[in-house]
Each structure stands twice: as structure tokens, then as C-alpha cells.
Specification:
Length: about 575
Amino acid sequence: MRLTILERNQRALASLIVSVIFLSACDTEVEVTTTPAEPVARFDVVEATMSEMQAAMTDGRTTSRELVEQHLLRIALYENLLNPTITVNPNALAEAERLDAERAAGRVRGPLHGIPIALKDNIHTTDMPTTGGTLAFEGLMPPYDATLTANLREAGAVIIAKTVLTELANWVAGDPYDMPDNYSALGGYSFNPYDPRRDPRPGIGDGKPVLETGGSSSGIGTAASLWAANVGTETSGSIIWPANQNMLVGIKPTVGRISRYGIIPITADQDTAGPMARTVADAAILFGVLEGEPDANDPATGRCEAPAGGDYTAFLDADALDGARIGIPRARFIEGERLTNGIGTRGGINAARAALIDDAVTVLRDRGATVVDPANIPSVTDPDPAQNFMNWQICAGSGDTRGNDAHCSIVLKYGMKRDFDAWLDSLGDAAPVSSLSALRDWNNANAMLGAIKYEQARIDISADVDLEADRVRYEADRAKDIELGGARGIDAALSEHELDALLFPTNRGSNIAARPGYPSVIVPFGFAPNDTNPPFPDDFDAAPAPFGVTFVGSACSEPRLIALTYAFEQATQGRVPPPSTP
């Protein structure tokens, strides 16, 4: 009998919970005393920060094993409601006990020692499968850890689980059959803890969540306190968008800050891993560990200078907004911008979301920042259609085939062919298929098993790339991406107004920042109506959607962005725990 991922997870969780209960009972000693012991309040992991967890372990109020026990129990409790995991580490308790023994012997590796962390399931772990959510990779045990995985282990983190993701980081389906966020053939749909229901609209819902979970990285489990924080990956928005949708802090780093070695790729030109956490401080702690030292397996690392000791908490300055200069790019990102062909507009947000941005601007000014509003991005408002960023989309739909793609950038589809095949080669005999084209064939042959529910337009257009014949076109598109996103885009706006950062609503700045590989940090701020088109039925009361603001800077500006977002977070305290997972 073939078990689904959900069924296997449930069985593994049941086994772990039985072990927790049995071993805890065996460890209990009966002590007879005439004086009742003072009751000790159990440390509660819900919404607890890493610093609070460390302090509790240092003081003897909890242990890493107890932290892992609590998180495993929460995973089991909310698995059916949210479907947040694709694999749970069966050795998590043993790893926690080993780290507790180290602590007892006087060795504490750092601020992640004994802390449960989850990884997106495109990041290699040699003790758990790394599947990318695709059926062809079910059970794949890579022959080596990702560099960031090794960094986490060395820092004493307990890798408790692998999270659900949009299959292959959302490079499978494309227009007209776009894949829902956090759906995969292996993992199915996952659900947002701020409204964990299915979309009720006939013919539209298809089983997907009523409130988007966001991007290809999952923030569900971190939002619901199923682990302390998680590691996502982003090519264009897949850290910032799920962080927004789950009221998390997300750091999308400069490409090259964190090694990509051992991560299933889309393209080395834009791919990066990054932390997702409930606070800026926790995200900063995790970020420093993920960055580590330059990696010989990833030539992009070393692009930016790391802080002393990899300690980004040194930049947590509650007064950092005082004297800062922040720009607000309104054209396209907040207000619709007229297309250069003169027909219609593109972009913009609704009135409720625009009002939240105005509120954020008020906070910035109240905290001593100079706000330049508007600080529009030159490549977005350029009247020349050939030089306007809005006219230069990513080739990602079924119609963007080879020979029919002059209107869009081929960087992602070219990079997927080049880098995915190279990644398969790195697996050696463990590789389930030999190439991207072979994966396409496997999916077609197994369509009846649900391998490609939303078809595979993006795999199709990537598999048809000719790496040699298309190289000149790729290099030209890559140069244009960097120019419109960087030199004539973000850099131009920052320079013109002498800004520390640009502020965007939700993930609206992700695409333009991703092209040149620039960093972004998002902070929770509030809620906005979960408006849809077509609307929900009249008798359906949709919960409001989380709303965050994103600070974007030029390459290697993470220290300044972390300082600014920490100050904004401390001034607003915008995060609200999800009501469905108390």
C-alpha cells in the first residue's frame, strides 16, 4: 500500500511522541520527601525567542531535549490543520540530548546551541530526504550536506524538520496553470495559520488555502511556533512573500552572502538562502550562522565582508531610524504606473494597503527618519519602452518558448537548464534522473500519479534551452536585468536621494531587487483585508491578511538594513501570533 507524505509524517510523529513519553517516564525517579517541592513553571516555546530559549537552558529551566519535545508535540498537534512539514527528523531527540551533554560539560557552541530549526526541502541533509517536493525525488538522500546545513550543525542547531515548499521552488508550472504557493506533488497543499481554511469559491478553490501561504518557502511552522525559525530560499520573492504572509521577519541576503552549495537550484544568478524568524534579533542570529566562511564550492561567496564573528546582532540598534534617509518608491509599487505604450497601467495596491504604507511613513518620521516621498525608481518610470523595467518581465509561461521569448528575460529558464543539470551531476549515483529533460519525461510518464497536476510549463521552456546557442542572448538579458534592477534601478534611486534604504509594501520590491541580487528585509506591520477577484461568497468571512513592509538596499547593505528594521520593529511591535495555533 502506497502511503501519502501526510500519512508517513503522522506515523513518524506518532513514533516520536511514543518515544518521548516512554523515555520521559523511564527517566522519572520517585523521591519521598516531607517538604513539598516548589512548583516550577514549565518553559513555554510558543512565541519564545532564541535568546529566551538560551537563557532558560543556561538557568536550568529547560533543556534542548525539552525544547524539541515541545516542538514535536506542536508539530503533531497542528499537522492536520496546517500540513507544515514534509519530513520530521527521527533523530531530533538524540541530537538534542547530545547537545545537552555538551552543555553540561561546559561547551556551548553559540546562540543556536540546542535550538530547533527547520529547513526548506530543497536544502541537502544527509539524514533526511531532500525532495524539492517532486515525486521523482521521493526518498532522495543526497550524498552530502548543504554548506549551510553543515554550518547549522557546527553551531549546535537541531534540524528538526524539512518544510513544505512550492515544488522545485516554483519552477514547475507556469501560466496559464500557475502552481499555488506551497503546493507540491509530494506534499500537497499547506495552509496559513492566520486562516487555515480552504478556498470556498466554486471552480477556483481546487483545495488550495483561502489565505495564501506565500512564495515557495514556508513560514507556516515558524509562525505557529513549531520550531524557533526556519531557512528558506529565494530566487525572486520566496523569502519575502511567505514572511509577509505569516507575519515573520525575513532576510533575503545579497547573492553570495550564503553558500548555495547543496541546494536544488533555479539559477545561480539569483538564488540565495536566508533566515525567517519571528523577530529581527532571531533572524540576525540565524543569518550569521548561515553565512559562515567563504565556501570553495560556491565562487560567489566572499562577495561581501561578514561582521566580526559573524555577529549581526551587533547592528540591533533601536535608534537606527534617527537620522536615516528612507525613500518611498510609489510609481508601480504603491500607485499604478502608466505603461509606456500609453495603454493602461500596471502595479499599485488598494486603498487599505496604501493607508498602511502611509502609517509606516508616519512611524519613520516619528522615529527621526527623513522620508523622501516619492523616491521613484528611474527604470520604472523611464519613457523608453526598451529601457523600462515594467516592460521587461521574466520568461516563465507556457508561451515563452525558445524563439518566442524576445519580450522577456531568459535568465531564469536558462539558469535552470544549466544549474539544475549541474546539481544532478553532483549527486552521482544518487541522482534519480540524469537531466532536466529526463525529469520532464518522467513527469509526463507519471502524470496519472499526480506528478504534474498544474502541468510543467516552466520545466518545458527550460528543458528546451540550448546552452551554447542561447548563451549570447542569456548574457545580454543578464546584463539588462542587472542594469534595470541595479544601476538604473535601486542604485539610481538610492544615489539620487542619498538614501539608506527604500521601503516597499509586502513583497512588491522583490522582483527588482532580485535581478541584481540585492538584499531585502521584511518586518511585520499589520493586517489588510483578504480581497480576491472574484470575491468570496457573501456568507464567507475571510480573516484579514498579514501585511509587512520591506526595506531594500544595495549589495552588501544587510548590516544597515538589519539596524533599520530592528528600530522599526521596536517602534511598532507589529507581529501578532496566529489565532489558530495557541
